[in-house]
Amino acid sequence: MASDFDFFAPEFQGDVHPHFARMREECPMAKAEEPFDWYAVTREKDVRALLHDWKNWTSELGPGLSREGGGGVLVSVDPPEHTFDRRIVNRAFTPASLLAMEPEITVLIDEIIDGFVEKGEGDFMQLLAVPVPLIVIAWLLGLDPDLVQQMRPRADGVISADALAQEEMARQMRAAAEAEGGGDRSGATRGQEEVRYFLGKIAERRAMHAAGEEMPPDTLTALVTTELNGRTLRDDEIVGFMGFLFIAGSATTTQLIGNMIYRLLQNPDQLELVRNNPDLYETCVEESLRYDAPVNGLFRTAVEDTEFLGVEVPKDTKVLCMFGSANLDPEMWEEPETFDVTRDYEQLKLHYAFGQGIHYCMGAPLARVEAKVALKLVLERMPNLRLTGEPEEITAPVLHGVETLPVAWDPPASN
Ligand code: HEM
Fold this sequence. Notes:
Elements: H1 17-26, E1 29-32, E2 38-41, H2 44-51, E3 57-58, H3 81-92, H4 95-99, H5 102-116, E4 121-123, H6 124-129, H7 131-141, H8 145-161, H9 165-181, H10 192-210, H11 219-225, H12 235-266, H13 268-275, H14 281-291, E5 298-302, E6 306-308, E7 311-313, E8 318-321, H15 323-326, H16 345-348, H17 364-381, E9 386-387, E10 406-408
Parallel strand pairs: 2-8
Antiparallel strand pairs: 1-2, 3-5, 4-10, 5-8, 6-7, 9-10
The structure holds protoporphyrin IX containing FE.
Protoporphyrin IX containing FE binds near residues 249, 256 and 295.
């Protein structure tokens, strides 16, 4: 059988909705042959079935297409390691502690807007959607926001260069950390600069801990001091967590903020509804996540030879769970192709943009707060926001949405 689709073809980027619709209708278990045989499931019930059956559909080989394994943490492990990892992250932050960041995030976004609002035009992504999540994740991890912003191009390069995205970055970082630790630098390739920086920060905190000094209440402190099952984390494990969180929490949230503003500008009636009704901010964020899932999909791997949707699937075959397509399945959603900010909020939250099951995104409350505050302040402080050109679409197959968003607004002087 020939490939049913080419996930890496340029036409698959951009407006993925028609491709998803065709796949759901014509080939719900679609086969791809590059660089080896793999499949993609696009119907909501099939995506759900795989995500909730980790015993038969493992994450051990990572959520990307690579069969080398992932970063060895969180999204690349099954229970019991996975349970251990979630407990570690829970020591670092909880949904409540993430929600408590809202006032700081409000000040941050206000200040960033202060910095460009006089201009009256620019690329919304570079002005706001990119810096906000990077600075917030730097705070959360205990890193220097200025340095983290400089690292962004490298993180992007990794995502654009291949479909392995997040877990590849974490894997590279761990390899580099192990190589640094062992004095063998041969394993250290991409991300080495970041790893050195992370290792330096870890060493600082370990010294503070040993001296009994008071430590900042951030993720780095939690990772350095947490003792679970009678042991603390090694440096390379901490670097693995940091590398994963750094990528998982930044590029994704950038896409959410950019995609949401883009859809509102494309749908002026919806923009008016939200503008006149702040109660709709949260629903608008959720509808954006449903309509434009920032992560198109992630993989699971068959533990044994099996059959799925009538297709023989050999052991170790990778299957892509298309979150973005499940979010548009007419079996689950009424008029799924309509961007509608008045949908029922509780029902909307069942979308797949943050995954489902045991790997459900741990940063979801933070991404939601960042997007809600960005929406509120953009509406308040950038009046008459409008598109001034066609946005460019992001070309990384894992991520979905706009790369650039050329906009103009009425600057304060002309108000
Ligand atoms: C709009 C923004 C975001 C999107 C779309 C998103 C998406 C996802 C998805 C789809 C998964 C599931 C992975 C899988 O099933 O294999 C996931 C997991 C995860 N995300 Fe997010 N994420 C976002 C923001 C964040 C942020 C801000 C953080 C950190 C503060 C974060 C931390 C995590 C963690 C720790 C996991 C791993 C959970 C596990 O494996 O148990 N994410 N995310």
